Amino acid sequence: MASHPGRLSPAAVRIDGLVRSFAGRRVLDGLELAVRDGEFVALLGRSGSGKSTLLRALARLDHDVDGEGGLTAPEDVSVVFQDARLLPWKRLLDNVVLGLRAPDAEERGRAALAEVGLAGRERAWPVELSGGEQQRVSLARSLVREPRLLLADEPFGALDALTRIRMHALLRTLCARHRPAVLLVTHDVDEAIALADRVVVLDRGRIAADLPVRLPAPRRAGGPGHARLRDRLLAHLGVDLDEPGIEADADADADTGVGADDTGAGPGRESGRESGRESGHGSGAASTPAHDRAAEEIPA
Length: 300
Ligand SMILES: Nc1ncnc2c1ncn2[C@@H]1O[C@H](COP(=O)(O)OP(=O)(O)OP(=O)(O)O)[C@@H](O)[C@H]1O
What we know:
Layout: E1 11-22, E2 25-36, E3 40-45, H1 51-58, E4 66-72, E5 77-80, H2 92-97, H3 105-115, H4 131-143, E6 149-153, H5 161-178, E7 181-185, H6 189-195, E8 198-203, E9 206-212, H7 226-236, E10 269-270, H8 276-279, H9 293-296
Parallel strand pairs: 3-7, 3-8, 5-6, 6-7
Antiparallel strand pairs: 1-2, 1-4, 8-9, 9-10
Helix pairs in contact: 3-4, 4-5
The protein binds adenosine-5'-triphosphate.
């Protein structure tokens, strides 16, 4: 992903003390987060930690939900879900340009389908496509609108491992070309590390860790720094790698070419102590959020 960690870009997203509650229970509890223009942020968190609730708030799909706090997000937002949500009675091109009011909509739709590797399939029906191909159409439909912000809620969660790897490469290429800010919800730590400029971990409605990923491309699992960053994120997700039956990557201590403290993450923010494994999941520190250093760098 083309990233410019040293360059100060404006904030595409700024969230300040966001609260969202269901039946009096706070799911987002004073959440602070900023995402720069063109930045790719992966959002990890245990099931029920509020990831989709956050995405729905950013997409303005939560009108009926109780909440407060500041939320600035662009108007031009596209959302990709785990299921492609194509209209089965419309051909692929019509699905891609649905609602797109532009004189050159059809031309752009064709170009978008070509970008995702589906040139020549414009007149196909969704039912004729595999799951991975349908998700390609979903990406084309999102990016044809040239959104400033792309929200992706586990977009590859239903795909097989090989298709997912291909989709990672495609998403990287598309984002480098179109440069939207991206907030990707995923359960897959490796996916987060492979794709994102920054990985944030949501825990009990707040950001428990916010780690820039400073790993060279291509980011292959097992590369320098990768394993230790992975362990650190897993610890924040409550996975105890010391538990019998759970093995850390064998190369976790065999990384070369990086300093002793190099976890592949820059000087991010973590609740609790520096090592997530030492702090244990949650560690109680989620209730006293540290200042978000990464967000601090983002000018309004
Ligand atoms: N419309 C709703 N009404 C009531 N409770 C809700 C609603 N939407 C979400 N919740 C609750 O809010 C909590 C967070 O849900 P959310 O879907 O945001 O979690 P998540 O982190 O995306 O989970 P998962 O990883 O399992 O998809 C859950 O306990 C869920 O039951």
